[in-house]
Design goal:
Layout lengths: L4 E5 L11 E5 L1 H11 L4 E2 L2 E4 L2 H12 L2 E2 L3 E4 L5 E6 L5 E6 L15 H6 L3 E4 H5 L2 H13 L3 E4 L9 H11 L5 E2 L5 H7 L4 H11 L3 E5 L5 E5 L7
Parallel strand pairs: 1-7, 3-5, 4-6, 9-10, 10-11, 11-12
Antiparallel strand pairs: 1-2, 7-8, 12-13
Length: about 230
């Protein structure tokens, strides 16, 4: 569950007339697409614009093997981001998502029966950050799901450390799995200095399982019935 964004990408510095490629992306879509590619039955709860753009995005979602039954169409503006290279060749991201139709996602969009029957429900910190209603939808999903998975996905440009930490503290006790990244999120949101400390703190808060992602170094996996695994 979460917001879907239109991506406008170019591999040169952004300027009038440069060639660019149009696509769709977003953390929720990326997770759903990966799960579908792995053979899972997947649905995506999101809000799209009620116009040709929204229909085109929905068609792409279906092409990826993701059910669109939970997609809602509303009047508004689809969130957009630009990704381009700056004069030094570094990738830069610019977002236009404030007040987007995706941020109108709310608790009324969460069907308790659907979420309770799902094998797993995945949500992230971005959905908590884009609006109060979207955050409330995530909280409701966590309350009614059998297995709720939360990725903190902390983005300083979207939310503060304090708000992101508050969301994590609320959701950890309701989560079957929490997947913070080390060292960025574990340090900023948990105040821990090692993956093992981060996992222990989240388990102490009530999370059933924790997978601390450490980039190329691997994953610290701790949880119910598990020995500490690296």
């Amino acid at each position: 569950m979460g917001e879907i964004l239109v991506e406008v990408a170019t591999d040169v510095a952004f300027a009038h007339g440069v060639p660019a490629q149009l696509g769709i992306s977003g953390d929720a879509l990326n997770v759903a697409a990966a799960a579908a590619a792995a053979g899972a039955r997947v649905g995506l709860l999101s809000v799209l614009t009620d116009d040709d753009l929204g229909q085109a995005i929905a068609a792409r979602i279906a092409e990826l093997g993701i059910s669109t039954r939970l997609v809602t169409f509303r009047t508004g503006q689809q969130g957009v981001y630009l990704v381009h290279s700056d004069p030094e060749g570094q990738r830069e991201f610019s977002y236009a998502r404030s007040g987007s139709v995706g941020s109108s996602l709310g608790p009324d969009d969460v069907d308790p029966a659907v979420f309770a029957s799902a094998g797993a429900v995945v949500a992230g910190g971005i959905a908590c950050a884009i609006s109060e209603s979207s955050r409330a939808a995530v909280m409701k999903a966590a309350a009614v799901s059998r297995r709720f998975v939360f990725d903190p996905n902390f983005r300083p440009r979207l939310t503060s450390v304090e708000d992101a930490t508050a969301a994590l503290l609320q959701l950890a006790p309701r989560s079957y799995l929490v997947t913070p990244s080390f060292p960025g999120e574990t340090s900023a949101l948990l105040g821990t200095s090692t993956p093992a400390e981060a996992a222990a703190k989240l388990l102490g808060l009530g999370a059933t399982n924790v997978a601390v992602t450490c980039g190329a170094e691997g994953i610290q996996l701790e949880g119910e019935g598990l020995d500490s695994t690296w």
